[in-house]
Every structure is written in C-alpha cells, then in structure tokens.
Amino acid sequence: MTFSKSKLTRIGVFYDGNYFFHVSNYYQYQHERKARISIDGLHEFIRHQVAEAEGEDVKYCQIVDAHYFRGRPRAQEAEARGLLLRERQFDDILMREGVITHYLPLGPDGEKGIDVWLALETYELAIYKRFDVIVLIACDGDFLPLVRKLNALGARVMLLGWGFSYIDQSGKDRETRTAQVLLEEVTYPVLMHHIIDDRSRKGDQRIDQLFVPHKETGSYQKPMEMKKSQALVAPALSAGPSNGMAPINVRTTVDAQTVAEAPAAADITATADTLARDDGPPSSDSEASPGNLSTANGPTSTLSITPTLTGTLSNGVLVGKIQALREGFGFITPNDGSGNLFFFHASVLNADFNELRVGDEVTYKIGNNDKGICAVDVEIMV
C-alpha cells in the first residue's frame, strides 16, 4: 500500500494562557454556548484547520508540541482564595492533553515577563524542533516581532484570535479584539468568533467539539451534591481574586483593545496598548466558615446556615437572595432591606455561576468596583 504523502506536517501550539482563559470565560458565562473551550477539541480543530490551509491530509498534520504560558497566584495565596484545587484540576487537563505548562508568580502589578518567556521559548523551539506550522493563541500586538522572526525561519504561522463584547466585573461594556498588525503579518489568520458563530456551520461536529460538553463542565458538583469538606471550594477554573477577571498583562494596538480574563484578575484601562486588570486587590478579610456560625437556637451544621432577621451573620458576611441573573453577572437583594447589589460571575465561590437560580439564598460580603459597592465572595446557602 502506498501513501500520497510520507512527510509529517509538524505543528507547534503556543498559548497565551490568560488570554485563553478570558476567551473561555466569555463562552462559559456570556455566550449562548454556556460552555468552556475544550483543549482536546481545540487541538483537533487546529489539525483540521492546518490541513485545510496546507492542502494536506489531516492524518499527516500532527501537533508535536504544545505549550501554555500564564502568570498565576502563589500557592498560599491561591489556597487562601479557594483556587488551589481548581488550578490543579486544570493542570491535570493540560497534562492529559500533553500540554507543557510554564508559570510565573503574579505580583501586585499582575503578570511580568510571561509574554517575553512565551516569545523566547517559541522562537527557540521553532529553531530546534523545526515546526512546519506554529499556532499562536494570542491577541497581543507585542508578539509582532516574534511572528516576523518565525517568518524569517521559514515557518508558517497560524493565529487563532477572537473578537467579542462582554460585561466586565464593574458592569461596564468591554470589547476584546485581536491586534490587526498580527492578523496582517501571520500566514494563516483565523478569526474564531466568525467560525463559531457562523450559522451555516450550526451543528458542525468540529465546531461543537470546541466546547466542553455540559455534562462535563464541572467536574464541579452542584451545591446540594457537594461534600461538607468541599462546601467552600470555588468551582470555577480561575486564578484571580474572587471579584475580577483574569490578569492578562498583554498589550495591543488602538484597534486591538482587549481586557484580561478570568483565572487571574486584571485592571481595565482604556489605553490602546495595555490589556489591563479588571479586578481589585484580593480581600484581606478572612473567609466565613459555616461551621463556626451560630444562631439564636445554637450552632448550625456545616452545610446549613440560618439567616438572622437583620440579614447579617458575622465577620462582615451578609445574607440575601438572588434577584436577577444576566450574562455573566447578577443582582442580590439583601435581607436587611437595602438596595440590590451587583455581583460578577467570578465572585461566586461554592457553585458555578451557571448553576445559580433566581431566588437562591446566598451569603456575600461587601466589595467595591468602578461603579461603587457590589457583592463579592458570594456563596449559595445549602
């Protein structure tokens, strides 16, 4: 038996991790898909996209190397914010898919140096491993010199980029775009939002497989199914403070403004060349432990919290009900009769935001965003 082609098309994939999580959070919380991006599905999509672009049989287009770069909180900080388990779970997913991880600790100003590391590692591996096609999952115009260097090596560069509008943790309208200079410089620019939202491809298995099936979107347990020891574990894959999206220390051009995403938080600025952080600093208040709360009738059980008449428990923990849910955010009506409070999906600690329902009783703390006070550290009462 003879084959029409014997030479493998070698593909290297390089992730700007915080950008990827920003995109994944958008599809999980603010897009009609209500599901995260699947690493396995994305890699399969890449193979087919490269095969189509190169005019080759997909079986000869193989991902031989994949690398994921991100700044993330230090272990003690992640544990204090209930994020350590979620970080480890995502690491397990990456490991299962053969993705090599590269992390730097987040500092007070967010990510520092991760983009440089991504660029240097990509260029070095392109020389030593001789990739035929290098796939960048990024949006930052600062990667332009890298793309030009890769072009000079003779490699073809495919860029997976997204563009979409979303609501940030302050309730403001924001927009993410991929730097136009990158789209113009790479060999194969791929605007993923156009492909995903293309009505003519509705029901396309390759597109549907880009998303984690709903039955898997948590390996999370719904609140009523959680073990007592897991009651305060944050279910969302995130690496940032509870009231913000992830810090993505990425810079773009004027027509490529974007913001950071959800595993680590980021300030948002209106400047054209900075992907800013859109969260505040993590709260220094200690987390309320249901097992330590008590009512007039005595101590409560670990999973049962009885609100007081004033709607206040202890340590600044308040009680209310979910009044409304929108795309990635909602409002809580406090039991003390005060006005409704805005909360962001990343502020929910012991349930996935998409599992919440109007009328659910919750505990929360008072925080601040750009518009004033809001609810943070939201936990469903079970």
From TrEMBL:
Protein's name in the database: Cold-shock protein
MF GO annotations: nucleic acid binding; RNA nuclease activity
Region Disordered: start-end pairs: 274-303
Domain CSD: residue ranges: 317-380
Gene Ontology annotations for the cellular component aspect, listed alphabetically: cytosol
Pfam families per record: CSD, NYN
UniProt-listed PANTHER family: SLR0650 PROTEIN, SLR0755 PROTEIN
Taxonomy, superkingdom: Bacteria
Cited InterPro entries: CSD, CSP_DNA-bd, LabA, NA-bd_OB-fold, NYN
Organism field: Candidatus Methylumidiphilus alinenensis
Compositionally biased tracts (Polar residues): 283-297
